[in-house]
Specification:
The protein is mainly alpha-helical and about 525 residues long. The protein is built from 22 helices and twelve strands. It has helices spanning about 5-15, 20-30, 55-70, 90-100, 120-130, 140-155, 175-180, 230-240, 255-265, 305-310, 315-325, 330-335, 360-370, 375-390, 390-395, 400-410, 425-430, 450-460, 465-480, 485-495, 505-510, 515-524; strands at about 40-45, 70-75, 135-140, 185-190, 200-205, 210-215, 220, 245-250, 275, 280-285, 290, 355. α14 (about 375-390) packs across α16 and α19 packs across α20 (about 485-495).
Length: about 525
């Protein structure tokens, strides 16, 4: 441990005196008054681009664990990487959580929830570390650090500022003052006492206790360019003072695990329980091998893809929940729970290996979800999607809500045999497009029996009930020495342009007598 700095020098190093003492911060952010066993979780994205599916997956786990335990789920924006920040990214994050039904509760007393607004907290903790000799100002330039990296690479050593490469690790106050008088702004580095020959044991809620070499790198805590914290230091301060109990994050952070545990122990703070989730993978179409979802190759990596294509957000959540919670699908199929939110999720059951995202499987979940909707809920979902994301044709389809309701009501009156051909709101409108004349595409390849159509048309009456309508089909078939199915198929293709549709009588009733006659005459 090095000697600590004086308070006056700390103020110069940090660009101002710290606002709080540690005791004042502890009093400002007291332990939360929550039920025993309640989880306090946070989704902490950086506003550096679109909302990734993996982020939504992690946020779902955060939200579920907090909600089922009577705890708190927070949204914290980690916006200290100002160089990579993307305009409107925060709005996209907030909108995505809202549309997928993940409700967070940012209690004001533990805010602010933007890291860029918590600078006083970070500097106060950094001042404590500088005073205790657990951190130091480092005046290495980027050019000097690049020289160090090159030397380390040439020697086959791990890169970083540690040991003999940490030039400013033990400089005294006089030398620090000379650098400051020269106008140099230092980074603040951790004074690491770790030895990579020793092991540190870190507890993960899913993976159990994991052994790592101790961290010996003097990691940057406060950057010199904007005096904002690095991720490592900000997450230490925020998770402690926001009283986070569980941290859900991707397995790519496992390599930083020993550093983070080291920092919590250094401060004398109890670290949260970490849950390192597996990556969201898919089967590569070219190689046939499992790989991580790619921002560059896979449109479904962006959650906006699901919104724009009209996937039911509830179905996406159900499917991601099934990936995260082993045993959920079985419980749902047995009727033990109605949705993922009713199922008790256990951290130990979260998968450790790459979680496979299968669009075909998602289709199944979507069909199952849509099949449970009332007609009014189905219509509302389709209309809302079309108004926000749909094409001009889609907007025309939903302009007459009563007609749309009639179309989407077909074969939804029998809960035991409800149709399951709707997958997305976009696909739903495409599936029923033949009900609108401006989208109807006549089938020019089908070999119609025009005698069938003429005979049926001669007796057609839109006021007929289903039995009377069917008897006319049977009569037409007998008169022309055909099967009733042949007559029905001719009518089906004439009405819709397709050979496979829902109940023919119902769709002809919705089309109406005038449109039925027009389409038969079009063929004739």
């Amino acid at each position: 441990m090095r000697n600590g700095l004086s308070k006056d020098l700390i103020a110069r190093v940090l660009g101002g005196a710290p606002k709080y003492t540690l005791d004042e911060l502890e009093a400002k952010f007291p332990a939360r008054k929550l039920p025993e066993g309640a989880f306090v979780t946070r989704f902490a994205p950086s506003p550096t681009g679109y909302m990734h599916l993996g982020g939504l997956y992690g946020a779902l786990i955060d939200c579920k664990l907090a909600s089922q335990s009577g705890g708190v789920f927070m949204l914290r924006i980690e916006d200290t990487d100002t160089k990579r920040e993307v305009k409107d990214a925060v709005d996209i994050i907030i909108e995505s959580l809202e549309k997928f039904g993940l409700k967070y509760n940012n209690v004001p007393e533990y805010g602010p929830y933007y890291q860029s607004m918590r600078k006083d907290i970070y500097h106060s903790v950094a001042a404590y570390l500088l005073e205790k000799g657990m951190a130091y100002p480092c005046f290495l330039t980027s050019e000097e650090m690049e020289e160090i990296r090159q030397k380390q690479n040439a020697a086959g050593f791990a890169t970083g500022i540690y040991g003999e490469y940490a030039r400013d690790r033990d400089i005294g106050e006089e030398e620090i003052i000379k650098h400051l008088d020269n106008g140099e702004v230092p980074t603040i580095r951790l004074y690491s006492t770790g030895n990579p020959d020793n092991r540190i044991f870190c507890k993960d809620a899913v993976r159990g206790s994991i052994s790592f070499p101790e961290n010996n790198e003097d990691t940057v805590l406060i950057k010199s360019n904007d005096r904002l914290p690095t991720y490592h230091f900000a997450h230490l301060c925020d998770d402690h003072f926001m009283r986070t109990t569980h941290v859900v994050r991707g397995e790519e952070w496992l390599s930083s695990f020993p550093l983070h545990v080291q920092m919590f122990r250094m401060m004398g703070w109890v670290p949260p329980l970490y849950i390192h989730t597996s990556t969201i993978d898919k089967i590569d179409e070219e190689s046939g091998k499992q790989r991580k979802l790619s921002k560059r190759k896979d449109p479904e990596a962006n959650v906006a893809f699901f919104l724009e294509a009209g996937w039911p957000t509830e179905a996406v959540i159900e499917y991601l929940g099934n990936i995260a919670a082993s045993g959920y699908e079985e419980a749902k199929m047995k009727g033990q729970v109605k949705s993922f939110w009713d199922y008790e999720m256990r951290p130990k059951k979260i998968p450790m290996s790459g979680s496979l995202f299968d669009m075909k499987k998602l289709e199944w979940w979507a069909k199952e979800h849509i099949a449970t909707l009332s007609v009014s809920d189905l219509v509302k979902s389709v209309v809302d999607w079309a108004k926000e994301y749909g094409s001009d044709d889609n907007k025309k389809q939903v302009s007459d809500r009563d007609y749309l309701t009639s179309v989407l009501s077909i074969e939804r009156d029998n809960p035991k045999r409800i149709r399951k051909d709707f997958i997305t709101w976009q696909q739903t409108l495409k599936e029923v497009s033949y009900f609108w004349d401006f989208l109807f595409v006549p089938n020019k390849e089908y070999e119609f029996n025009k005698d069938v159509l003429s005979e049926f048309l001669s007796s057609f009456d839109e006021k007929d009930d289903k039995d009377s309508w069917w008897q006319k089909i049977v009569y037409t078939a007998e008169k022309l020495a055909l099967k009733p199915g042949d007559v029905a198929m001719n009518l089906r293709v004439a009405m819709t342009g397709r050979t496979n549709t829902p109940d023919l009588y119902s769709l002809m009733q919705v089309l109406g007598g005038e449109r039925v006659r027009e389409r038969i005459n079009m063929v004739l």
